[in-house]
Design brief:
Blueprint lengths: L4 E6 L5 H9 L3 E6 L7 E5 L1 H8 L9 E5 L2 E12 L6 E8 L6 E10 L3 H4 L4 E4 L3 E6 L8 E4 L8 E3 L10 E2 L6 E6 L10 H7 L7 H23 L1
Parallel strand pairs: 1-4, 2-6, 7-10
Antiparallel strand pairs: 1-3, 2-3, 4-5, 5-6, 7-9, 8-13, 9-12, 11-13
Length: 231
């Protein structure tokens, strides 16, 4: 796979107004974070290039080169911000990595196949954990984690402990975490209606509204009797 290269420009102006002007020009602000002791470097990058990285199979765990002037840094996306309404990228943070030291990243899970429990047993497939955190050298980051769900029947699941990642990748997510499982059909909730309540009442019984009317009539009759006694 060819190395991904993102061109970046160093910037000296920061703050809300400067960032808005930068976005208006077609770029977005970003910050490059290095190892301990190095000061963060404000940069400007193309949102199209960052968006293309996010749309790859690796997404934010993609290792790429960030070129600032004549220097090239090996980085991964540390964080990014998206406009909640327009969906446009607003900001991106980068983390420079040491190719000889392991880093912790989250890798996307991709499901394949149709579960037996869904196809022949009428169950439902629930995809619970869509990312798994791993630790490895930057050059060994998996593009994705593939899981074949074809053999899953109702009540069966795939947990983190079932993943086979090899010796170069250490899984950090707890082994008991369920990634995907198949469950049976949920029972439909029956909503009681006045008609259903009357139909379910024992034969010969009166609806509650009729009983209430009788009690009110009896109460009025007793009041009239008391008035007659006073006279």
């Amino acid at each position: 796979m060819a190395e991904i290269v993102v061109a970046a420009q160093s910037r000296t102006e920061t703050g809300k107004n400067a960032n808005n002007r930068l976005r208006a020009s077609g770029m977005i602000p970003g910050v490059l974070y290095g190892s301990t002791g190095q000061a963060p470097v404000p940069v400007a990058v193309s949102p199209k290039q960052i968006g293309a990285i996010l749309r790859t199979g690796r997404g934010e765990s993609t290792l790429f080169a960030l070129e600032i002037g004549t220097t090239s840094r090996k980085v991964v996306l540390k964080d990014y911000q998206v406009d909640p309404v327009k969906g446009a990228l607003l900001h991106a943070d980068f983390y420079e990595v040491d190719l000889k030291k392991p880093i912790s990243v989250k890798v996307h899970v991709v499901l394949h196949g149709t579960a037996v429990g869904v196809k022949t047993e009428g169950g439902f497939l629930e995809f619970i954990t869509r990312e798994v955190e791993v630790s490895c050298l930057p050059t060994e980051i998996p593009e994705k984690i593939d899981i074949d769900v074809s053999d899953l029947t109702i009540g069966k699941n795939v947990r983190v402990a079932d993943l086979k990642m090899g010796d170069k990748v250490k899984v950090l997510t707890h082994e008991d975490v369920v990634i995907v499982h198949v469950i049976g059909k949920r029972e439909e909730e029956v909503v009681a209606t006045p008609e259903a309540a009357v139909a379910a009442a024992p034969a010969g019984s009166e609806p509650e509204v009729i009983k209430k009317g009788k009690l009110e009539a009896e109460g009025d009759a007793k009041k009239d009797d008391k008035k007659k006694e006073k006279k």
